[in-house]
């Protein structure tokens, strides 16, 4: 029987929704236990949130001053130590998990399954390669199985659990060669791009940071999160944390509206799991229309304000 | 300071990937191969650090079959001083790649190792982090800015929440994100010059690296296709369609 340890992702005392998605993925193995590991300077609040997730057996906390920030060089030896006795160690396929989990796997001397998107059995999983243009089925060798879970492939596990919370003391020396300096977070009152049920994205066609206002305005009308293509980010219209795609965020909103985005495969990789895709583009031949559920050809600078107005 | 750059050859990002009919892999025969885009960014950054006088030598390394010499000549033409070719016909997975790169580190004693954040074929995004763990040194992944000051580097990282800056003691492993820089174009005279630059080949078997037990790939499939939907003629029709689906 499988015993699964999930590394919690959190920021400013808030548990990230990616953790509950890992719980759903873990549940597919019908495991004997799913435990969540919270590494933090002050873990109580985060642990309480984790304990609420249905299906979780125990929440294990490791409180150390060094855990105030998520530095992988500091966290990895603790996770590797805590992994003893578990058959699987999961983390989310977010920048947090992508940074941390391979370091854990190397310390454990095992390979990692990146972007786990489907569980076949306890050893066998599906994951995307070549920017999602092929799906490969892989089996892990004997030993602990370390994986990052592709968050867009699994819904968050429901609330309503009542896991116990236990403090864990791990005897590990931590390095001082890596130090946190600062985090410049894009401040936004809009729904989080990775969990929003509706997302409006703009591309290079917007032409400037100033023109991007019409995207924000439409998004606000819909209560949507805002994303962008790489071209829009590179051109400086919007910050990097808004990039959707192979090398940005992989998202699965119910509604995705792509405006002035051509539909390069690297962008499409990020939205394949969206419920309904709407595309607005002046080029009727744009590849985005090949995958859009609803396509509208025309100039975005007239159509977007018109759409906003039509939404009443 | 010497900089070691991971320089992997991959299927070009513009190639439309086809899964083989027998599901044993993707078609790579006759397909255009190019340097991994993130590795070109890593090399560009190393060259800039050398041009600033921070680095003295840039060494590109690849683990690939014997026919990858031209690929390494590309890296030399871009400006690397030397190249190391670890020759193997096997596809090397990240943990083994990290063990091999660690051997090269022991040999070369670089002050900085620059890798791509991910290879766009396996999309693993693991090798740099694994290498840093095995080497017991700092890692800074997803770099969009690197400032080296003596024995310390300040690296700005593209993370989901925004831009994070960390300080790391050197030597260390840094992996590149897309916005770190724009790689230069190779000029014709540089291609000529590259022909005489040192390119060392080492058979993998001679490195004394134990291959790690890896993942076994049993089946490749094309992803579920999204079918083409309908074109609407105007905003009113779009809003009606979205209303009908309960989306707005
Ligand atoms: C390794 C690698 C990784 C990458 N990762 C990503 C990634 O994660 N995410 C990503 O998005 N890209 C990524 N890219 C880049 C990708 O290949 C494309 O270059 C990018 O997505 C293009 O952005 P775009 O659609 O905004 O711009 P363009 O391709 O320039 O498209 C602009 C579109 O706007 C339309 N348009 C212009 N004016 C108007 C108007 N007035 N009204 C309506 N429509 C108009 C045009 O018809 C065109 O279709 C990556 C590339 C590489 C090599
Ligand atoms: N065979 C290889 N040869 C050279 N560098 C490699 C090789 N495999 C991985 N790397 C480096 O590790 C990075 C991440 O690869 P991956 O972990 O496979 O996504 C790449 O961008 C390269 O810099």
Description:
- The complex is a heterodimer of chains A (312) and B (248).
- The longest helix of chain A is centred in the first third of the chain and has 14 residues, at 95-108.
- Chain A has helices at residues 18-27, 44-51, 72-82, 95-108, 213-222, 230-234, 265-268, 300-310; strands at residues 3-7, 10-11, 14-15, 33-40, 58-63, 88-92, 112-116, 118-119, 124-129, 134-139, 145-149, 164-167, 178-185, 198-202, 225-228, 255-259, 276-281, 294-297.
- Chain A folds into two domains: 3-167, 3-Layer(aba) Sandwich (Rossmann fold), CATH 3.40.50; 198-310, TPP-binding domain (Rossmann fold, 3-Layer(aba) Sandwich), CATH 3.40.50.
- The model of chain A has no long low-confidence stretch (mean pLDDT 97).
- With 312 residues, chain A is an alpha/beta fold.
- With 248 residues, chain B is α/β, with parallel strands linked by helices.
- Helix content of chain B is 28%, strand content 31%.
- Chain B has helices at 37-51, 69-78, 94-108, 127-135, 188-194, 204-207, 235-244, and strands at 2-6, 9-11, 33-35, 57-64, 82-87, 112-116, 139-149, 152-159, 162-169, 172-176, 199-203, 216-221, 230-232.
- In chain B, strands 9-8-7-10-6-1-4-5-11 form a nine-stranded mixed sheet, sandwiched between helices. In chain B, strands 2-3 form a two-stranded antiparallel sheet.
- The interface between A and B is large, with 88 and 82 residues.
- The structure holds flavin-adenine dinucleotide (FAD) and adenosine monophosphate.
- The site of adenosine monophosphate has 23 residues of chain B, from α1, β4, α3, β6 and α4.
């Amino acid at each position: 029987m499988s015993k699964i340890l999930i590394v919690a992702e959190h920021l400013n005392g808030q548990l990230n929704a990616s953790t509950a998605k890992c719980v759903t993925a873990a549940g597919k193995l019908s495991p004997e236990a799913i435990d969540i590991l919270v590494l933090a300077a002050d873990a109580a609040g985060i642990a309480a949130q984790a304990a609420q997730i249905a299906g979780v057996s125990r929440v294990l906390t490791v409180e150390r001053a060094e855990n105030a920030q998520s530095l992988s060089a500091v966290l990895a030896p603790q996770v590797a130590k805590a992994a003893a006795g578990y058959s699987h160690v999961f983390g989310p396929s977010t920048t947090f998990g992508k940074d941390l989990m391979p370091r854990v796997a190397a310390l454990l001397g095992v390979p990692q399954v990146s972007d786990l998107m489907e569980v076949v059995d306890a050893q066998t999983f599906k994951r995307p390669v070549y920017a999602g243009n092929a799906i490969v089925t892989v089996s892990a060798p004997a030993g602990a199985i370390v994986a990052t879970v592709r968050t867009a492939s699994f819904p968050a596990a429901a609330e309503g659990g009542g896991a116990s919370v236990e403090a864990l003391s791990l005897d590990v020396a931590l390095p001082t060669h890596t130090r946190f300096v600062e985090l410049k977070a894009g401040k936004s009152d809009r729904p989080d791009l990775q969990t929003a049920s509706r997302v409006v994205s703009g591309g290079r066609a917007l032409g400037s940071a100033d023109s991007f206002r019409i995207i924000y305005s439409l998004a606000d009308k819909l209560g949507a999160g805002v994303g962008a293509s790489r071209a829009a980010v590179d051109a400086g219209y919007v910050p990097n944390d808004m990039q959707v795609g192979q090398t940005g965020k992989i998202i699965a909103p119910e509604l995705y509206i792509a405006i002035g985005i051509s539909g390069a495969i690297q962008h499409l990789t990020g939205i394949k799991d969206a419920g309904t895709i709407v595309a607005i583009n002046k080029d009727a031949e744009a590849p985005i229309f090949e995958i859009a559920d609803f396509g509208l050809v025309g100039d975005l600078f007239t159509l977007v304000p018109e759409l906003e107005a039509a939404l009443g | 300071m010497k900089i070691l750059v991971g320089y992997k050859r991959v299927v070009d990002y513009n190639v439309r990937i086809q899964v083989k009919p027998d599901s044993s892999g993707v078609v790579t025969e006759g397909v255009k191969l190019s340097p991994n885009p993130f590795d070109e960014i890593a090399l560009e950054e190393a060259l800039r650090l050398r041009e600033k006088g921070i680095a003295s030598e840039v060494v590109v390394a690849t683990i690939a079959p014997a026919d990858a010499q031209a690929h390494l000549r590309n890296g030399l033409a871009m400006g690397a001083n030397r190249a190391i070719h670890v020759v193997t016909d096997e596809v090397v997975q990240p943990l083994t790649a990290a063990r091999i790169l660690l051997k090269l580190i022991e040999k070369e004693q670089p002050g900085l190792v620059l890798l791509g954040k991910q290879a766009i074929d396996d999309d693993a995004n693991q090798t740099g982090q694994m290498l840093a763990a095995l080497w017991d040194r700092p890692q800074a992944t997803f770099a969009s800015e690197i400032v080296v000051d003596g024995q310390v580097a300040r690296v700005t990282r593209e993370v989901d929440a925004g831009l994070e800056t960390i300080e790391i003691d050197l030597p260390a492993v840094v992996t590149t994100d897309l916005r770190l820089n724009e790689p230069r174009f190779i000029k014709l005279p540089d291609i000529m010059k590259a022909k005489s630059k040192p390119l060392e080949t080492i058979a993998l078997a001679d490195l004394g690296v134990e291959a790690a037990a890896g993942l076994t790939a049993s089946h490749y499939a094309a992803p579920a296709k999204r079918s083409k939907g309908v074109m609407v003629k105007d905003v009113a029709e779009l809003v009606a369609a979205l209303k009908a689906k309960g989306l707005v």
